[in-house]
Amino acid sequence: MRVRTSKSSALSTAGAVVLAASLLVTGCSSTKDKKEGPTGSSGKELTATDRLTEAKKVLDGTPGYHFKLQGTDVPKDSSGVLSGEGDVIAKPAFKGTLNVQAGSLAASVPVTSVDGKTWAKMPFSAKTTTINPNTYGAPDPNVLFSKDKGVSTLLPQTKGAKLGGKLRDGKDIVQEITGSLPGSAIKAVLYMGDGTGTFSVKYGLTDDNQVRSAQVIGPFFKGSDKTRYDLTFTNYGQTVDITAP
């Protein structure tokens, strides 16, 4: 038996086929053109080096943040910082605690840095006095958090920067970036090492280029190239009142 097809029915079927094909092509095009990472003002996807340059701008531009430093495999006979934590504002100014080691002596020292000076309450002292942190093998917070000489300057100095995997940081996903830094940069900023050698680095950046973490491994101390320092940056945008004691 022969089935007759009306002209309007045939046109309707043809239209449906064309529409489906159009949707299929559009879907494929959207998938192909979708960017896999953040883009710059030009719309071009940012490279690892671009991301680190943007991360410096973000860190320098925030009113404040919380900072933490943790050392691993610090030689027991060395003099230097073991760990530290505190709040930073854009003056720059810092208020927190540094855990330092001088030979066999280790101590937790409350520190305030503002207006180019640093105050600390040293062990066995009843008073808070001005100090030079470099004397104790610790970085000066007035330099460490400055825009032109501080930790943010390490980001764009990173050599051979490469995008790695992505990891979860609380509610955010961070992009891992690896590379290396020259010993001269580490010495200038962290006041550790002898200014030579190469340090491996690994950063974690959010999609809006907030650097959340930085891991640095290398010859911070003579005779050891495995010492590691982990830096974390949280609470972007916070402001706290930091004044001289």
From TrEMBL:
PROSITE patterns: PROKAR_LIPOPROTEIN. One of its GO terms (cellular component) is cell envelope. It comes from the Bacteria. Residues 1-20 form the signal peptide. Keywords: Cell membrane, Lipoprotein, Membrane, Signal. The keyword Iron does not apply. Coiled coil: none annotated. Residues 30-49 are annotated as: Disordered. It is found in: Cell envelope. CDD domains: LppX-like (cd16334). Belongs to the LppX/LprAFG lipoprotein family. This is Lipoprotein LprG. It comes from Yimella lutea.
